[in-house]
């Protein structure tokens, strides 16, 4: 007997799952300011949601409403282009998830270092494993439990940054966006890495689509959740950054330094808020890993259902949770838990964008081939308008990649590594097609 998936995620819980799929708070934005300077950093954080996230959310909203299936973007590509490109989409997703998920235990250790600054490498590794398996335990209780944890964590994090912003206002002594750019920005390559950090803080709007089989009224809930989450994420970056930049010396900021930023900006409340934001940083790291494990684990689950991965990954447990896919994912992420942040972000953005642009192509193809296929939400433009929307992020990624190629330390090696990881998907598909899919009959649409 097939165990059905349970629809336990509401629109509210989906908003906070998306919040952690994309953001998790203003953490890491200090790295952008350090890399580019205050004015340029703030400008990038304003332009990226307009030029990158808005087109992406519109395109993703239509696809999610059109095909609200478990597996999300993998299923969209499968419907449009068949199993080969669906496998590549799933593979690229898996590769960037290995990169992405390695970041959050690192962030947890950064903020734990506020309380315990001399942790050994071994201790950090063990703590990273504790973060991973705590999130795994929550995921094994089902999508609804992940949603509840995301709501509680998100409210705490947003409230902490709002308090820091309010407490900083009386201590603003200068214009937050001056100087415009860091005098030591390392040419176009350094700018490319800075933009990659900003893009990384705004990517992931399609991630939660993979769990749409567990969302209440998925065809309407996903577009609604996108409409709430995009402005929420944007304001959650800009408000605390603007307030604290005006109330502190940004040249003293350090990566993972929000506790010290709060101390320097918030006057008498600074020490207390420094402790609060350090705790919030740890909460955010766990909640990010928790929500993303929910999303990423559904890709091998869906691929196994199409006989592109071993069948054991496609069997839900008694709660309707893909236990095998969750556990295998957690094991893989445990191996990648301690890698360099700067290298990770550049590779992450490129791999994510490759998968995303294939999804954009799927929407264009489905608009042309199956014009009657539509959900509760549809972008109010024709196919030419959809192509124009999709072209904007493509142009941005092309420019950023060109800039990163000038960065020999981070950009160029990371791009080569990302492309090499993506290319490995082709021989894996050949193996899966010859073995796992032997005798497989495509289900009727």
Q: What is the count of DSSP helices, taking H or I runs of 4+ residues?
A: 16
The count of strands amounts to 0
Helix content: 55-70%
Contiguous uncertain segments of 5+ residues: none
Structure description:
It is globular, with a radius of gyration of 21 Å. The mean pLDDT is 89. It contains 16 helices and no strands. It has one domain: Up-down Bundle (Amino acid/polyamine transporter I). The chain has helices at 11-22, 29-36, 38-66, 73-81, 83-112, 121-139, 143-168, 187-200, 218-247, 258-265, 270-305, 323-335, 341-369, 383-404, 411-423, 425-434. With 445 residues, the chain is an all-alpha fold.
Summarize the structure.
This protein has one domain (11-434): Up-down Bundle (Amino acid/polyamine transporter I), CATH 1.20.1740.10.
Question: Which helices and strands appear, and what pairs or packs with what?
Answer:
Layout: H1 11-22, H2 29-36, H3 38-66, H4 73-81, H5 83-112, H6 121-139, H7 143-168, H8 187-200, H9 218-247, H10 258-265, H11 270-305, H12 323-335, H13 341-369, H14 383-404, H15 411-423, H16 425-434
Helix pairs in contact: 1-7, 1-9, 1-11, 2-3, 2-8, 3-8, 3-9, 3-14, 4-5, 4-13, 5-6, 5-11, 5-12, 5-13, 6-11, 6-12, 7-9, 7-11, 8-13, 8-14, 9-10, 10-11, 11-12, 13-14, 13-15
Structure keywords:
445 residues
